[in-house]
C-alpha cells in the first residue's frame, strides 16, 4: 500500500499528445517519489472547463462533473478525488458544492445521471494536487527527499487564477498566496515572494478567442518575472503554463521584446530535485528548454 | 429575433430583474449588488468591457433588457474569479456573467461573430462528440471559424507554434483521426440531453 | 501666613527616582529653600504605608498643605486624594516630568538633578499660595429633573430618571405625548441581523417593526414620579444646577414655579418644508408627499393597500427621492444631511411591498446611500432582498400628471432617465427645535482686532442690558427662557444644533446642568434618540448629586474649588461675565459679577480674562502659578543653561508630555512645565513676570480651537489665542524678540510632537541668544 492513495482526474489536456502531457508525466514521476498512488477515474469525461458555459448551461455543465464524481464514488470508493488541472479541479469542486447547496439541482443532476446508469452521492472531497502536497505531504517531507537541490536558480512562482480563486489552498490569501514560493524554497531554489504578477490572469481560454487582449496580460506576467531577476517561471496550472510559454514568439514579434523564459510545472521541479532524469521530469516537453534544470538532471 | 426578445420593459421596474432571477444562473443575487465597483476595478480585462459587471447589474435593475442581453461585455470574462473573491457582498459575479452570456446565447442575442461565443460553441460541440476535448480539432475549428480562406491564413500564422508543440509531443496529428474519447459516449449524450430538458422546463416565460 | 498652616513635602524614591536623583539634596531644597515644616522621604509613597505616613501627619501633626514629589499628577490620583481631609495638595512631577524624560547618562546627571530641584522649589512656592478648597454651601440636594419635550426622547429620559428614583416634570407644548413617533406606521428595526447571517439573497434580515410608542406613553402616564404638563411651555428658568427655578406656563395662562435640580432638553425637530423647492412640485401635486405624510397614508391604509391621495388609486409604483433640500449650500436648503432619511425610505419601500404586494415597484433615488444606526447595512440588504430598486441619481424634476414622471440623471449609467410612478415620496430633513443662539451675534466678531472685539462685546452687553426691560427681540421663540447674562437658550455649534464637546462629553451643553438629547443635538433615529435620552438622564442625575455637594461636573469632576473675586479691586469691566464659555457668571444689582458656582466648570477662563487679577480659586490663582515662576531657578547667563517655561493645558498637553516621557522621548533639560487648567486661564501677567525673571522662552500648549475644537472648555483655547495677540506689545516694550513666546495647539496623541516643540524653542534660543533679563 502506498503512503497516500487518491482517485485521479487527469483532464483532457493531460492526455498523451495533448498540450499538458508534460504535466501528467512529471506528476507521475513526482508521485512515485512521494509514494502517492493515483487511481484514474475510469471513463472520466471533460469538465467543460471555464468556456463550456455558453452552450452548456448550468445543469448540463454541473452534470458533466457530477458524472466524474459518481464514477469515482462507484469505482474508487472512499478515495478523495485529486485533479492536477486548475479548471478540472475548479469545475468539479464547484459542481460538488453547488449540488450540495441546492437540493433541487442535486435531484435534477441525479435524474440526468440516471440516463447514463449512474448515481451521485456527492460525499467525496475534491482536491487539487497542490493541496495534497501542502496539506497531506507537507513541505518538510518534500524537502526531506531532495537529492539535488536546485541551487542557484531563481524562480518566479506564478500561481495564476483558478488554482487560487475562488477556492484556493486553505489558509492562503487570494491576493498573495505563498505556498508555491515555499515549494520552490523546499526544493532548494530561490523564490520571489513579492512577484507582483503571481495571481495575474493570463487570459485563460480567451487566449484563443481574444489573443491580443490576452497576450497583453501575458507580456506583463513575463516582464515582471524578468524584472525580478527570475531564471524561469513555475506554475501549477496547465493553461497558465501553455499561455505563458507558447506565445512568447508572437509577443516578441508584436511588442519587439526578446522574451525567452522557460515556464515549468512545480512537479518538474520536484522530479528533478529528487534526482530523476530530464525525460522522467518531462523536460523534453518544453518549447523553451529549461536548461538549468536539464543540467542538474544530467549530473 | 423572436417575440420573446421584444418585451416592453418599463424602466426602473422589477420586470427584467425578475426575468434574470428566474432564468439566469445565480440571477437571484443581482439585486444584492451595492454598486461599490470593486468587481469592475478588479477585472483583468476591465477596460474592454463596454459595461463592467457593476454597470451590468445596474442596467438590469434599470430594466435595460436589450442593452444587457445584446452586450459584448460578459463575453470578456476570462473566469479569473477576481471579482468573486473581492466582492464585499459575496455575489458570484463570474457565474452571473456566464449565466447572462448563456441566456443571451439561448435567446439568440449574441453579437454576430463574437469570438469567445464562437469559441465556446466550438469547444462544447468538440467535447460533446467524444466526451473529451480534441485539442487539435479544436484549434483547427477555431482557425477555420470564419471560412476556409481566413482559416488557412490563421493556421499558417500559427504554423511554427504547431510544429513546436508537436515536437514537444504536446500536440498529436493522430488526434485528427479519432483521438481520445470516453467509452460511454451515448450515455453521456443522453445524460446531457436530459439535463438540458430539465433545465428548459424550469425556464419562466415572460411576455 | 496664618499659624494654623503647616507645610509638608514628601519625596518618593520609588520607581527609580532614588537611583537617578540625589534625594537627600532634594530634601535640603525643600527644607532650606522651600521652607517646608516637614520633609520626609519614602521608598514607595503610593503604598499603603506611604499614604498612611502622610495621613498620620495630617491627622496627628496638623499638616494642612502637602507637596507630593513623586510621579505625575495624572498618576496615583486615588492614592493621593485624601478625600476625607481638608488639605491643600500639589504634586511635583519627578518621575514622568524628570527621570523618565531625561537620559540616564553621566553627562545628563547634573541637569536632571537641577530639573528635579526646580520642581521641588516650584511646588513649595505654589503650595504656600494654595488653600484647601471647600464647597461654598450654596447648594442643597434637589432631586427634581425637568424634561422639556414629550416625544420619544423626552419620555425615555423621564422614565430613566424616574426609575433611578428622581422626580420628573415633563413639559410638552402640544396636547399629547408621543411627538413624531406617534405619527409613524412602523419604526426602523432596532437590531441588525445576528452575527453570522450570510450575504445570500434569502438571508433572514431585519424588517420594520412596531414603534412601541403607545406602551411608552402608558408607562409615562402610569409613573407616579413623573408629572406631565401638556400644552405647556417654559416661561422662565433662573438659578443654577441644584437650585433652578422654572416657570411652567399652560396655554390657559396658568403658571406654576418648580424648583429643579437639572434639566434635559429634548425638543426634537421640525420637518423641513419642501414647498419652496419648485422642481419637486410638492405644492403642485397631491401625489407628491413628504416622508412623514407617507407614514400617514400607510396608517390610513389599515390592512389594505396604500392608495394615493389624488384619486384613491392603489399605488403600483413609488419613487423615493432622497436628500430633498439637504446637503446643499444653496439658500433655503439644509447644509447637512439628516442621516436617517435613507433608513426611512427603505422602511417605507418595504411598507409598499407589504401592503401593495411584491409587484408594487419601489425605486429609491439616492445620491449617497447611508444607513447608520442599529440595523445599518443589514436594513439596506433587507430592502434589496425584497426587491427595492436603489439607483444613484440626481432628480431634476417631478412632473405631475395621472402618472408622475420623475426626471433624473442616473449617475451610474451616466444618462438621463424618466421614471414613472403613481406616488413620489420626498425625503426631507430634520431642523432642530432650538431656541435663539445666544452667540449668534458673535459671528460678527470673527476677524476683528482685539480692541474692536472688546468694544463690540461691550456694546452688545449694553444692548442686552437695555433689552432686559423690553424683553428679547429674537425671531426664534425661546425654549428655556434662561434668565442668564449670556442669553435665553443653549448655545449652538452650527446649523441650530446645540454645542457640546462631542468627542469627550457628548451630552454636555455649554450650560452646566442642562443636557440636550435627541435630534435637537444632532439628527438621529429613534433608537439613537432613546440611547441619547438615557445618557442625558444619567448626566442630569449626576449633576444633581454634584451640585448637592458643590462638586464640579467634568472635566474637573469632583473639584470643590470655585472662583471668587476681590470686590474692592473689581472695575466692573464685564470681561469675565462675557467671556465665560458656560454663561456661568451673571451680574448682581450693583453690576458686580455673580459667580453661580454650580454653573461653573472651573476652567479659570474668567481668571485669565480679568485685567486686574482679582479672580481666583482657593487652589489655583494668579499667585499659585506666579509663585512657581518666581521660585524656578534662573542660572546666570554665563552658565549657558536657558530656561523655557511651558504652560501646559492639563487636559491634553500635560498628559501628552507624560506619555512622551513614558514612551522614552527626551524632553529638553531646560524646560520647566507648569500645568494650567485651560489656556483660557492663563494670565498675561505670568508671561510678563517670567520674561522679567529671565526665562528665555515661553511655550503655551492648549487644545485645538475653532469649529472642530477640542478645548475641554469649548472657548478657553480660543480666548487664550486672542489674548496672546497682545503679547507682541509686551515683548516689544521689553525689547525682546517675538519668537520667545509661542502658542501651540496640542492633542493628547502628540507624543512625539510635544518634545519636538520644546526642542524647537531650544534651537530658537540658541539662535537669538539668552534673555538679557537674568539678574
Could you describe the 3D structure shown?
The complex is a heterotrimer of chains A (about 300), B (about 210) and C (about 775). With about 300 residues, chain A is α/β, with parallel strands linked by helices. Helix content of chain A is about 45%, strand content about 10%. The radius of gyration of chain A is 19 Å and the shape is globular. The model of chain A has no long low-confidence stretch (mean pLDDT about 95). In chain B, about 55% of the residues lie in helices and about 0% in strands. In chain B, helix 7 runs antiparallel to helix 8 and helix 8 packs across helix 9. Chain B has 2 domains: about 100 residues, Fumarate Reductase Iron-sulfur Protein, Chain B, domain 2 (Orthogonal Bundle), CATH 1.10.1060.10; about 80 residues, no CATH class. With about 210 residues, chain B is mainly α. In chain C, strands 13-19-14-15-16-17-18 form a 7-stranded mixed sheet. About 0% of the residues of chain C have low confidence. Chain C has 4 domains: about 130 residues, Rossmann fold, CATH 3.40.50; about 200 residues, FAD/NAD(P)-binding domain, CATH 3.50.50; about 160 residues, FAD/NAD(P)-binding domain, CATH 3.50.50; about 140 residues, Rossmann fold (3-Layer(aba) Sandwich), CATH 3.40.50. Chains A and B meet through helix 2, helix 4, helix 8 and helix 9 of A and helix 5, helix 6, helix 7, helix 8 and helix 10 of B.
Amino acid at each position: 500500500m502506498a503512503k497516500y492513495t487518491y482517485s485521479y482526474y487527469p483532464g483532457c489536456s493531460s492526455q498523451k499528445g495533448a498540450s499538458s502531457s508534460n504535466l501528467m508525466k512529471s506528476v507521475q514521476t513526482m508521485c512515485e517519489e512521494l509514494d502517492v498512488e493515483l487511481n484514474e477515474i475510469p471513463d472520466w469525461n471533460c469538465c467543460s472547463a471555464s468556456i463550456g458555459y455558453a452552450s452548456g448551461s448550468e445543469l448540463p455543465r454541473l452534470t458533466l462533473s457530477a458524472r466524474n464524481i459518481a464514477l469515482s464514488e462507484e469505482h474508487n470508493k472512499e478515495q478523495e478525488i485529486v485533479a492536477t488541472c486548475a479548471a478540472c479541479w475548479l469545475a468539479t469542486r464547484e459542481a460538488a458544492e453547488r449540488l450540495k447547496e441546492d437540493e433541487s439541482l442535486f435531484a435534477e443532476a441525479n435524474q440526468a445521471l440516471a440516463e447514463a446508469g449512474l448515481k451521485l452521492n456527492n460525499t467525496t472531497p475534491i482536491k487539487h494536487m497542490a493541496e495534497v502536497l501542502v496539506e497531506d505531504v507537507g513541505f518538510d517531507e518534500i524537502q526531506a527527499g531532495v537529492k539535488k537541490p536546485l541551487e542557484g536558480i531563481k524562480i518566479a512562482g506564478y500561481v495564476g487564477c483558478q488554482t487560487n480563486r475562488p477556492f484556493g489552498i486553505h489558509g492562503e490569501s487570494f491576493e498573495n498566496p505563498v505556498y508555491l514560493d515555499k515549494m520552490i524554497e523546499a526544493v532548494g531554489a530561490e523564490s520571489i515572494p513579492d512577484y507582483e504578477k503571481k495571481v495575474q490572469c493570463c487570459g485563460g481560454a480567451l487566449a484563443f478567442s481574444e489573443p491580443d487582449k490576452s497576450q497583453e496580460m501575458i507580456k506583463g506576467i513575463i516582464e515582471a518575472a524578468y524584472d525580478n531577476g527570475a531564471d524561469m517561471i513555475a506554475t501549477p496550472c496547465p493553461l497558465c503554463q501553455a499561455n505563458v510559454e507558447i506565445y512568447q514568439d508572437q509577443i516578441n514579434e508584436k511588442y519587439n521584446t526578446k522574451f525567452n523564459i522557460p515556464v515549468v510545472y512545480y512537479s518538474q521541479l520536484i522530479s528533478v530535485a529528487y534526482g530523476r532524469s530530464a525525460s522522467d521530469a518531462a523536460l523534453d516537453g518544453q518549447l523553451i528548454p529549461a536548461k538549468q534544470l536539464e543540467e542538474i538532471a544530467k549530473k | 429575433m423572436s417575440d420573446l426578445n421584444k418585451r416592453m420593459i418599463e424602466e426602473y421596474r422589477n420586470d427584467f430583474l425578475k426575468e434574470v432571477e428566474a432564468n439566469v444562473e445565480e440571477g437571484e443575487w443581482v439585486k444584492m449588488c451595492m454598486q461599490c465597483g470593486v468587481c469592475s476595478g478588479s477585472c483583468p480585462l476591465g477596460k474592454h468591457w463596454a459595461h463592467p459587471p457593476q454597470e451590468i447589474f445596474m442596467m438590469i435593475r434599470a430594466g435595460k433588457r436589450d442593452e444587457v442581453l445584446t452586450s459584448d461585455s460578459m463575453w470578456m470574462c476570462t473566469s479569473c474569479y477576481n471579482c468573486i473573491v473581492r466582492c464585499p457582498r459575496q455575489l458570484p459575479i463570474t457565474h452571473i456573467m456566464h449565466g447572462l452570456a448563456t441566456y443571451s446565447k439561448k435567446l439568440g442575442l449574441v453579437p454576430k461573430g463574437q469570438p469567445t461565443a464562437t469559441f465556446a460553441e466550438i469547444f462544447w460541440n468538440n467535447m460533446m462528440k467524444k466526451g473529451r476535448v480534441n485539442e487539435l480539432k479544436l484549434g483547427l475549428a477555431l482557425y477555420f471559424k470564419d471560412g476556409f480562406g481566413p482559416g488557412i491564413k490563421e493556421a499558417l500564422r500559427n504554423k511554427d507554434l504547431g510544429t513546436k508543440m508537436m515536437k514537444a509531443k504536446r500536440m498529436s496529428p493522430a488526434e485528427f483521426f479519432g483521438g481520445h474519447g470516453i467509452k460511454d459516449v451515448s450515455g453521456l449524450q443522453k445524460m446531457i440531453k436530459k439535463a438540458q430538458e430539465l433545465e428548459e422546463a424550469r425556464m419562466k416565460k415572460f411576455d | 501666613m496664618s499659624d494654623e498652616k503647616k507645610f509638608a513635602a514628601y519625596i518618593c524614591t520609588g520607581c527609580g527616582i532614588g537611583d537617578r536623583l540625589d534625594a537627600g539634596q532634594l530634601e535640603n531644597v525643600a527644607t532650606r529653600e522651600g521652607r517646608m515644616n516637614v520633609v520626609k522621604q519614602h521608598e514607595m509613597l503610593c503604598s499603603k504605608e506611604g499614604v498612611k505616613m502622610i495621613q498620620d501627619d495630617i491627622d496627628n501633626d496638623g499638616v494642612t498643605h502637602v507637596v507630593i514629589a513623586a510621579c505625575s499628577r495624572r498618576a496615583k490620583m486615588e492614592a493621593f486624594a485624601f478625600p476625607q481631609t481638608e488639605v491643600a495638595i500639589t504634586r511635583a512631577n519627578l518621575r514622568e516630568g524628570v527621570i523618565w524624560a531625561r537620559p540616564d547618562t553621566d553627562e545628563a546627571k547634573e541637569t536632571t538633578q537641577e530639573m528635579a530641584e526646580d520642581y521641588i522649589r516650584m511646588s513649595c512656592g505654589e503650595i504656600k499660595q494654595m488653600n484647601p478648597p471647600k464647597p461654598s454651601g450654596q447648594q442643597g440636594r434637589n432631586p427634581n429633573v425637568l424634561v422639556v419635550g414629550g416625544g420619544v426622547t423626552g419620555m425615555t429620559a423621564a422614565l430613566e430618571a424616574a426609575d433611578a428614583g428622581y422626580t420628573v416634570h415633563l413639559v410638552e407644548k402640544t396636547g399629547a405625548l408621543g411627538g413624531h413617533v406617534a405619527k409613524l406606521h412602523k419604526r426602523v428595526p432596532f437590531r441588525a441581523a445576528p452575527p453570522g447571517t450570510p450575504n445570500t439573497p434569502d438571508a433572514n434580515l431585519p424588517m420594520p417593526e412596531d414603534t412601541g410608542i403607545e406602551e411608552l406613553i402608558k408607562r409615562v402616564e402610569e409613573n407616579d414620579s413623573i408629572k406631565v404638563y401638556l400644552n405647556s411651555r417654559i416661561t422662565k428658568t433662573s438659578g443654577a444646577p441644584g437650585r433652578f427655578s422654572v416657570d411652567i406656563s399652560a396655554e390657559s395662562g396658568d403658571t406654576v414655579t418648580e424648583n429643579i435640580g437639572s434639566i434635559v432638553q429634548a425638543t426634537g425637530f421640525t420637518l423641513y418644508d419642501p414647498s419652496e423647492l419648485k422642481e419637486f412640485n410638492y405644492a403642485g401635486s397631491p401625489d407628491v408627499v413628504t416622508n412623514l405624510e407617507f407614514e400617514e397614508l400607510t396608517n390610513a391604509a389599515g390592512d389594505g393597500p396604500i392608495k394615493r391621495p389624488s384619486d384613491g388609486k392603489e399605488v403600483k409604483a413609488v419613487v423615493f427621492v432622497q436628500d430633498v433640500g439637504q446637503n446643499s449650500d444653496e439658500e433655503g436648503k439644509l447644509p447637512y444631511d439628516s442621516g436617517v432619511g435613507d433608513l426611512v425610505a427603505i422602511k417605507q419601500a418595504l411598507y409598499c411591498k407589504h401592503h401593495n404586494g411584491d409587484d408594487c415597484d419601489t425605486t429609491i433615488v439616492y445620491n449617497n446611500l447611508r444607513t447608520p444606526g442599529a440595523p445599518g447595512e443589514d436594513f439596506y440588504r433587507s430592502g434589496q432582498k425584497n426587491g427595492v430598486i436603489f439607483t444613484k441619481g440626481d432628480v431634476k424634476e417631478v412632473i405631475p400628471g395621472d402618472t408622475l414622471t420623475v426626471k433624473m440623471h442616473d449617475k451610474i449609467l451616466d444618462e438621463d432617465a424618466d421614471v414613472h410612478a403613481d406616488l413620489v415620496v420626498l425625503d426631507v430633513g430634520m431642523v432642530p427645535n432650538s431656541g435663539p443662539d445666544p452667540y449668534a451675534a458673535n459671528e460678527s466678531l470673527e476677524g476683528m482686532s482685539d480692541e474692536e472685539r472688546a468694544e463690540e462685546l461691550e456694546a452688545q452687553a449694553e444692548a442686552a442690558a437695555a433689552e432686559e426691560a423690553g424683553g428679547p427681540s429674537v425671531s426664534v421663540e425661546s425654549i428655556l427662557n434662561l434668565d442668564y447674562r449670556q442669553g435665553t437658550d443653549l448655545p449652538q455649534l452650527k446649523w441650530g444644533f446645540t454645542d457640546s464637546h462631542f468627542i469627550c462629553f457628548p451630552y454636555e451643553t455649554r450650560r452646566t446642568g442642562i443636557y440636550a438629547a435627541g435630534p435637537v443635538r444632532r439628527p438621529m433615529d429613534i433608537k439613537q434618540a432613546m440611547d441619547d435620552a438615557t445618557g442625558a438622564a444619567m448626566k442630569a442625575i449626576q449633576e444633581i448629586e454634584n451640585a448637592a455637594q458643590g462638586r464640579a461636573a467634568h472635566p474637573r469632576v469632583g473639584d470643590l474649588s470655585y472662583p471668587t473675586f476681590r470686590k474692592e479691586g473689581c472695575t466692573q469691566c464685564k470681561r469675565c461675565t462675557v467671556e465665560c464659555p458656560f454663561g456661568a457668571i451673571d451680574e448682581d444689582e450693583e453690576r458686580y459679577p455673580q459667580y453661580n458656582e454650580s454653573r461653573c466648570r472651573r476652567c479659570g477662563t474668567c481668571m485669565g480674562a480679568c485685567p486686574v487679577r482679582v479672580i481666583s480659586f482657593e487652589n489655583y490663582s494668579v499667585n499659585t502659578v506666579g509663585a512657581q515662576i518666581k521660585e524656578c531657578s534662573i542660572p546666570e547667563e554665563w552658565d549657558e543653561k536657558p530656561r523655557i517655561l511651558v504652560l501646559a493645558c492639563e487636559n491634553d498637553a500635560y498628559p501628552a508630555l507624560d506619555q512622551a516621557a513614558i514612551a522614552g522621548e527626551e524632553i529638553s533639560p531646560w524646560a520647566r512645565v507648569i500645568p494650567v487648567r485651560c489656556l483660557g486661564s492663563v494670565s498675561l501677567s505670568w508671561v510678563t513676570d517670567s520674561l522679567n525673571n529671565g526665562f528665555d522662552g515661553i511655550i503655551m500648549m492648549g487644545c485645538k480651537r475653532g469649529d472642530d475644537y477640542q478645548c475641554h472648555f469649548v472657548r478657553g483655547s480660543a480666548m487664550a489665542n486672542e489674548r496672546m495677540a497682545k503679547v507682541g506689545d509686551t515683548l516689544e516694550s521689553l525689547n525682546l524678540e517675538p519668537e520667545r513666546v509661542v502658542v501651540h495647539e496640542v492633542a493628547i496623541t502628540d507624543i512625539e510632537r510635544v518634545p519636538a516643540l520644546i526642542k524647537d524653542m531650544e534651537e530658537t534660543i540658541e539662535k537669538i541668544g539668552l534673555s538679557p533679563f537674568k539678574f
